[in-house]
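On clarity, I found the account of how folds are encoded harder to follow than it need be. Since the whole study asks how a given chain folds, the encoding of that fold should be made plain. For illustration, here is how one protein appears when written out as sequence plus structure tokens:

:::
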Amino acid sequence: MLTEERYATILHILDEKKAVSVLDLTKILNASESTVRRDLTTLHKDGRLCKVYGGATALDNAYTTKEEDMQTRSDLHRQEKRIIGRRAARLVSPKDFIYLDAGSTTLAMIDFIDSSIHAAFVTNGIIHAARLAERGMKVFILGGAVKPVTEAVIGTEALNSLKAYNFTKGFFGTNGISMKSGYSTPDSGEAVIKGSALSRCTQAFVLADSSKFSRISPISFANLSDAAIITDCLPDKKYRNHTTILEGESN
């Protein structure tokens, strides 16, 4: 495939999916990882996409209605998610009763939680429950319907399950953070679960890399002031006027 053909293919994918990983592009383009990264660097310098850790995102992503699958989301911003996950894990204390929201950034947090801390977890993430259990932690999973794209449990049954719980802390993912629209997500079913669980937390934290700021998805599930934000790097200091910001550390 010629260089310009690769460029056109990459931009077409971003027009449809809004984000793509380097790994996926190597398969689609039948090209080496170094070639794909070189193409992304060129397109980024030309102002035709935004190159991020592990892949690329479209430039016109201030308002987004589409969700990437869990594999794509996990591949993007991988290093940033590890920084955020490490910072968030430090907030887990003995005897905490924690809600852990489904999502790739909250998933990254699990590897850094001290398994000797006797905290208990409730989650609507299928993968999250399995990983917590593998690490020997006490975990409960909400009942309900499974959303295939995000592998999150949603629906009336899950919502009713939440009514029995009162959490000391909650850690949540989001698709967008905006001073106008707060925390938002594309799916109304997930938004209802997020909002309900967040309202039942004494302390709530939203885990989001810097690319999520100034982005808006169709459904808002909380105001900025309802949760502190844990991020790798704050792109706009004005957000500090609306809520507490905790920036992650790389070591």
The domain at 3-61 is CATH 1.10.10.10 (Arc Repressor Mutant, subunit A). The chain has a mean pLDDT of 90. The chain has two domains: 3-61, 75-247.
